[in-house]
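REVIEWER CHECKLIST
Item 1: Sequence provided? yes
Item 2: Single chain? yes
Item 3: Sequence as submitted:
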Amino acid sequence: MIGIRTALKKFKFNYWQSGEVARRYHEATKSTSDYTSKITDEYLNILVTKLTRKSKILDLGCGTGAITRRLINYGHDVTAVDISLQMLEQLKASCQHETLKTIQGDIFALEALVEHGSFDAVATRWVIPHFPNWIAILPKVVDVLKPGGYFLFDIGSDDNYTIAQERFELDKHIFGYNDDNTKLGKNFYASSGIKELNSIANFANFEVVSINTFGFFRQNAIIASAARGYGFETYKEEFAKHYENPDVKKFVDWFDSLITPGFPYGMVNTLGVLLKKNPK
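Item 4: Structure as written out by the authors:
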């Protein structure tokens, strides 16, 4: 009998193969001025401040290139890996830089896709939270990194995700998901806490450089709970409209730069985690 985690992985991999899904995903993530774009820049800054120009970076589960294009613009050599050929085609159409290399393949089988010890850094965005068995990816990342190389990833905050699970349907319907026809239950997304992250990193031969709170207003279960009757999707759409107002944008950007970094980890939807491979 197929396990729930394997079923979930197969379910999502199949979903991402659609050309229409790739097109919609690109449209949703190509902006360079909305709130998602702003916090993506903040997220990547956790890593790029540690790197020298022309570093070799692996974009893990690149999708249509939301962080690929940024890393190239920062002056780095990027290899982008994704399971979906349709996603990669969208990426190549929007980014034709001569240093970009794309590879179609399963991120759980990196050893078959790229060379051992060949990257200064591995970065991923909106990928790790999709897989409850994400820990299985860490040994693969360790293998492809040079000693002292960095791994940047995001993952759901345990406390915030618990609220989301209890009170909302999240965005499962976007995947054609419901509890009746797939029986995937609470395994749909992954989340973690600080003790777990530190323990896992140590076991996988990583040093924890930093665990960061950012993007307080992005799909935050605390805010969605307070906005009774809104739900995640309505709250997300309403916030996006307000963020277009220059005065609102100025306040939100100030809040995120000064206040959000000092919040307890459970106060935000997602944590940005930077690990460093231990030298052998």
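Item 5: Key structural point noted by reviewer: The domain at 4-277 is CATH 3.40.50.150 (Rossmann fold).
Item 6: Recommendation: ____
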